[in-house]
Write a structure and sequence with these properties.
Number of domains: 4
Strand order of the largest sheet: 5-4-3-2-1-14-15-16-17-18-19
Number of helices: 11
């Protein structure tokens, strides 16, 4: 099997892997399908087409199973919800449990000795039941979690499980069910201990994948999942154990300071570590695996990214936001949101970060000196990178340059109006078929002799000027800031000239395009001050457009228009006129023209009958 040369995780979960021999693999965002493109031989004809194979992951052929498993591990390591097909996971990685592990309990800092959790600068926090572990790095910028997760089930079973776990999603409901959740966890642990003490069946009764036959009806398959998260952005379920790990590190630091002070005859200090009462919840809800089959396979993208084939290309097909890139042992993480962050992990326990006003311009290098455990920080400017030092394992200049190129590509994808990069198959609501994720027009303004401004619900701004220049940027309309400044959402903007040439311009250095950028920012600032942009939430629009009451109201409006129009009255006249031709005169008194209405009247009659049948059926159902 060829070694991986490049692995990319896009926003939503899609994975693209390039191998050393030239072959490529593309994994759907939900993980349920894959596309494998074999490499062409060296003596291939220029017109010879590449051989591609597209299959369901659960029914993958043996030739691709090892590569698929590695691609799935890469996806699950950085995605909030893993995809775990039992047919691909090796038997030695699966575990049989007799009860569902829906939640776990973490140790109480009031009774547990957290200082014992630290080892050589890193922190390990384990759940009481041993089903989850959290490891915080010495630099406190990234943490790793390991937890037991049930393998992917069918869509019906996954829906039942998600409904079962929905009570733990909101904080209010979580707080109300706190005591009952702890009691249920204790009872489940008691049942597990009782099951462990029960006599087992003979080991020679084996089924598929080496699972004993008597386990298949009363047990579930689980597997250990490893995930890596940034301290700057992580799922809500890891908030409490991360706070425990940070508290443990602070306690260890204060303890060392106290020993130093006592050794030097200084006054001892007291350590009071406080935990927010809202986050002091020792029970966490574990992530669940995605279902085996996807509900929206039409959203799967089966084209490889042109950016990684030729980085000098200006136009890319179907741009996607990049979340993780692995290349030559270096990890690049890109966090897209209110606060955009770029993180680089070279592989030597050091860490580079760019955020806020530094995003794309400056990188801070965090490292800990071996032996003395001293933390050091260095800042690098993208415009003045240091030369390569012989003997170093990696080049600072190369990895920062690569991160900047990927970040600019992400901004081009984010500023594109032709493709919705946030549309994801497994994040859609089934009742709306994904319409709640499509951006809608919120505001439009036309200024004479200047241009036209359009604002969309995904914070994108499109400004078209009368001289043919167009500008796309992202603006936070929830902010009430009255000063013209570069906030974290608008590091770059995209300008398109009248002849179609696109340029990515830094807003802090607009150059000759300062007039266009200043005008667009003044428009957005004026909207912020007057608060003319309405608040948009996908949940409210979904309820309004897709509830049963709204649909019945539309039917009633249609019936009212139909009853108060003269369409039905003219039906008899149409029947007496077989040709179905009527005459009407235009407003200016021009010549008469014939318009056929027979098909329109027939369609309206049939629609009216169907609507009446629906109303009578609904009335009978309500009674």
């Amino acid at each position: 099997m060829a070694a991986e040369r490049l692995a990319v995780l896009y926003e939503g979960g899609a994975v693209e892997v390039h191998y050393a021999g030239g072959s490529r693999l593309l994994l759907a965002p939900c993980g349920s399908e894959y596309l494998f493109e074999a490499a062409l031989p060296a003596a291939a004809h220029p017109l010879q087409r590449t051989e591609t194979v597209r299959h369901r992951v659960a029914f993958a052929v043996s030739a691709h199973r090892e590569q698929l498993l590695r691609a799935l591990d890469f996806r699950n390591k950085f995605s909030s919800r893993p995809y775990l097909p039992s047919s691909v996971i090796p038997p030695e990685r699966k575990k049989i449990l007799f009860s569902d592990v829906l939640e776990i309990r973490w140790p109480d800092p009031a009774t547990a000795d957290l200082t014992r959790c630290i080892d050589n600068g890193s922190v390990r926090i384990s759940s009481v039941d041993g089903y989850a572990h959290l490891y915080l790095s010495e630099l406190q910028q990234e943490f790793t979690v390991e937890f037991l997760c049930k393998v992917s089930q069918s869509s019906a079973a996954s829906l039942h499980s998600s409904q079962k776990n929905s009570n733990y999603q909101t904080g209010d409901q979580h707080e109300k069910s706190r005591k009952s959740s702890v009691a249920e966890t204790s009872s489940k642990q008691t049942r597990l201990e009782n099951n462990k003490n029960e006599p087992t069946k003979p080991k020679d009764q084996k089924g598929r994948d080496g699972v004993p036959l008597f386990h298949t009806n009363c047990s579930s398959e689980y597997t250990w999942v490893t995930q890596r998260w940034s301290v700057s952005s992580y799922p809500e379920e890891w908030k409490y154990p991360l706070s425990l790990a940070l508290m443990c590190y602070n306690l260890h630091t204060v303890k060392n300071i106290r020993k130093t002070c006592e050794k030097n005859n200084h006054t001892s200090i007291e350590a009071d570590v406080l935990i927010d009462s809202e986050t002091r919840e020792a029970v966490s809800h574990l992530p669940t695996a995605l279902p085996l089959s996807c509900r929206a396979p039409h959203l799967h993208r089966w084209t490889f990214c042109d950016f990684f084939q030729n980085q000098n290309t200006e136009e890319y097909s179907c741009p996607q936001l990049i979340q993780i890139v692995w290349c030559q042992g270096v990890f690049y993480r890109f966090i897209h949101g209110r606060t955009n962050i770029t993180e680089i992990y070279p592989g030597d326990d050091s860490f580079l970060k760019s955020e806020g006003a530094f995003l794309g311009n400056y990188f801070i290098h965090y490292a800990i000196q071996k032996g003395i455990k001293k933390r050091e920080e260095k800042m690098y400017s993208v415009n003045s990178l240091p030369p390569d030092v012989p003997g170093t394992p990696y080049s600072i200049s190369s990895i920062i340059t690569q991160a900047t190129k990927i970040l600019q590509y992400c901004y081009k994808a984010k500023l594109s109006l032709t493709h919705n990069c946030y549309l994801c198959c497994w994040k859609m609501v089934p009742e709306t078929d994904g319409r709640e994720m499509l951006p809608i027009l919120l505001y439009e303004k036309v200024i004479p002799y200047t241009g036209r401004l359009v604002v969309y619900s995904d914070h994108k701004v499109h400004a078209a000027f009368w001289d043919g220049m167009t500008l796309n940027m992202v603006w936070d309309f929830s902010s009430s800031c009255s000063m013209i400044q570069v906030n974290e959402d608008v590091g770059w903007c995209k300008l398109t000239t009248p002849d179609g040439v696109q340029q990515l311009i830094k807003i802090s250095h607009p150059g000759i395009y300062e007039r266009y950028i200043r005008t667009a920012i003044e428009w957005c600032r004026s909207l912020n001050k007057r608060r003319e942009i309405p608040e948009y939430t996908a949940h409210s629009v979904t309820e309004e457009n897709w509830s049963a009451d709204a649909e019945l109201e539309k039917i009633q409006r249609f019936n009212f228009l139909l009853d108060n129009s003269n369409v039905l009255e003219r039906t008899s006249a149409v029947k007496t006129n077989p040709s179905g031709i009527t005459a009407r005169r235009t407003k200016k008194g021009s010549e008469l023209e014939g318009i056929s209405e027979a098909c329109v009247l027939k369609a309206l009659e049939e629609t009216s009958k169907v609507v009446q049948d629906i109303e009578s059926l609904l009335a009978a159902f309500v009674k």
